[in-house]
């Protein structure tokens, strides 16, 4: 090393030179402006990857973390700007605050419709799709789609998708939310204007879905005995499939809310939810106006992630979140909706990953075996060189009871899945940690595990 070079290294650091620019200015190109509310390290990391992997045109079309490129607003910014998800006046302040503070992360498009535990942040899924190299026209798979975040986001990005879930309600919910991107707005408006008869129509329709015991006919009107109800059939526009499913999801939404809260009667709650569903569809369709032909197609069905009905080597990328070990009983959360659909919950429980077994040890052992089968199928359907991203956390307190060790000594589910992936020709490419909000007592963080097929 020369003396001059050594002296240059010993010279005092210019604090002004370092502190004059913030971190984002130093790692991101000046022509890119980040969206508001970006406040976690993993988000900045995904934004950095997007800036390196995507072209300016691709960021404008599908970028997740940028508000503008050279002053031109991105489509993500346009989807999220303005009023956030519209909630009823009687909604809790906590819920209103959540959607306001996470306006650019969740709630845009039709993602914010219907509460569902363990939901992805759609913005994160968009970012993952981008850094995995999945482009418009490619196909992405979510073998455990839950509320449908991956298929919905892929559709908005012009990417084809396959969504699979063992719950029939998840299939219905996802299809309804995807159809909401193109639902006929005047027909939704007419249903709201005639919501007494709309309720009657949906009550009769859901009663037909019920295969076990019929829906109690007085259910909808128990809390309004003095209200005069329109006896007419709902507007004839309702039978259109997209309109019917969208309205029915709103019905289930109100039904679930009425069972959880006494803030409003079912009747009043249903009307406010219909207004929200109209607002959501109108807002996203305004952004997509003229770009409808760019939307991707989604193949969504009820199935088993351990035995996928997909041809080998046909998928360009996989994103999914397995059950949080057995920390959440998803069937219990959806029980009233599944009952309305006539689903035998006890029978369905026997096919659900994470719910089978009596003791914690049995549930854990079965869970690990099931997840190995899932990863085997993921490897089979994935094209060589493509990526499977798994978003997963570990309930350390739960597993520490099984292994009789301190929670800090528990082997995380993320590590178990990495080892399982190796058995099926998928190697760890990257692991990103993110903090969990709202489940701190169960899990403080989760990991984005990115496996690449050899």
Describe this structure in words.
The protein is of the alpha/beta class. The protein has 3 domains: 3-79, no CATH class; 132-168 and 295-453, Vaccinia Virus protein VP39 (Rossmann fold), CATH 3.40.50.150; 185-292, no CATH class. It is 45% helix and 13% strand. The chain has helices spanning 3-10, 15-19, 23-27, 41-53, 56-62, 75-80, 93-101, 122-131, 149-156, 168-179, 185-193, 195-209, 241-260, 266-288, 330-333, 335-340, 345-349, 360-381, 396-403, 413-423; strands at residues 32-34, 66-69, 72-73, 139-142, 160-165, 298-302, 315-320, 382-393, 426-435, 445-453. A 7-stranded mixed beta sheet has the order 6-5-4-7-8-10-9, with helices on both faces. Strands 1-2-3 form a 3-stranded antiparallel beta sheet. A hairpin with a 2-residue loop joins strand 2 and strand 3. Helix 4 (41-53) runs parallel beside helix 8 (122-131) and helix 8 (122-131) packs across helix 9. The longest helix is centred in the middle third of the chain and has 23 residues, at 266-288. It is globular, with a radius of gyration of 24 Å. The two termini are 42 Å apart.
Layout of secondary structure:
Blueprint: H1 3-10, H2 15-19, H3 23-27, E1 32-34, H4 41-53, H5 56-62, E2 66-69, E3 72-73, H6 75-80, H7 93-101, H8 122-131, E4 139-142, H9 149-156, E5 160-165, H10 168-179, H11 185-193, H12 195-209, H13 241-260, H14 266-288, E6 298-302, E7 315-320, H15 330-333, H16 335-340, H17 345-349, H18 360-381, E8 382-393, H19 396-403, H20 413-423, E9 426-435, E10 445-453
Parallel strand pairs: 4-5, 4-7, 5-6, 7-8
Antiparallel strand pairs: 1-2, 2-3, 8-10, 9-10
Helix pairs in contact: 4-8, 8-9, 10-13, 11-14, 13-14, 18-20
């Amino acid at each position: 090393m020369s003396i001059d070079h050594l002296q240059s290294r010993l010279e005092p650091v210019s604090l002004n030179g370092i502190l004059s620019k913030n971190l984002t200015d130093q790692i991101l190109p000046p022509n890119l402006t980040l969206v508001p509310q970006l406040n976690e390290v993993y988000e900045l990391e995904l934004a950095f990857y997007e800036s390196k992997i995507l072209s300016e045109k691709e960021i404008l079309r599908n970028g997740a973390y940028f508000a503008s490129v050279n002053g031109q607003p991105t489509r993500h910014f346009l989807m999220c700007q303005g009023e956030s998800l519209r909630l009823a006046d009687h909604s809790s302040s906590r819920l209103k605050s959540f959607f306001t503070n996470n306006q650019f992360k969740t709630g845009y498009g039709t993602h914010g419709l219907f509460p569902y535990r363990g939901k992805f942040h759609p913005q994160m899924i968009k970012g993952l799709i981008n850094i995995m190299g999945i482009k418009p026209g490619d196909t992405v798979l979510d073998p455990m789609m839950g509320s449908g975040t991956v298929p919905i986001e892929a559709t908005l990005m012009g990417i084809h998708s396959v969504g699979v879930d063992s719950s029939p309600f998840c299939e219905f919910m996802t299809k309804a939310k995807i159809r909401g991107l193109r639902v006929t707005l005047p027909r939704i408006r007419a249903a709201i204007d005639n919501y007494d008869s709309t309720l009657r129509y949906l009550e009769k329709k859901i009663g037909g879905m019920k295969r076990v015991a019929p829906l109690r006919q007085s259910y909808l009107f128990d809390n309004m005995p003095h209200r005069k109800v329109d006896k007419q059939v709902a507007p004839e526009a309702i039978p259109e499939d997209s309109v019917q499913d969208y309205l029915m999801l709103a019905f289930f939404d109100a039904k679930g809310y009425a069972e959880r809260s006494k803030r409003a009667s079912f009747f009043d709650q249903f009307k406010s939810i219909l207004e929200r569903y109209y607002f959501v569809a109108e807002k996203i369709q305004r952004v997509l106006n003229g770009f409808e032909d760019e939307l991707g197609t989604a193949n969504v069905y009820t199935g088993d992630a351990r035995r996928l009905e997909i041809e080998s080597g046909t998928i360009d990328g996989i994103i999914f979140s397995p059950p949080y070990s057995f920390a959440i009983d998803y069937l219990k959360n959806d029980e009233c909706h599944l009952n309305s659909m006539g689903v035998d919950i006890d029978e369905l429980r026997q096919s659900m990953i994470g719910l089978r077994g009596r003791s914690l040890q049995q549930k854990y052992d079965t869970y690990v075996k099931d997840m190995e089968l899932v990863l085997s199928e993921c490897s089979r359907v994935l094209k060589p060189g493509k990526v499977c991203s798994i978003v997963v956390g570990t309930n350390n307190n739960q597993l520490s009871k099984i292994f009789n060790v301190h929670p800090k000594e528990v082997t995380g589910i993320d590590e178990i899945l990495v080892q399982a992936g190796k058995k099926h020709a998928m190697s760890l490419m990257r692991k990103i940690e993110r903090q969990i909000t709202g489940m701190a007592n169960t899990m403080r963080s989760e990991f984005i595990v990115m496996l690449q097929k050899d």
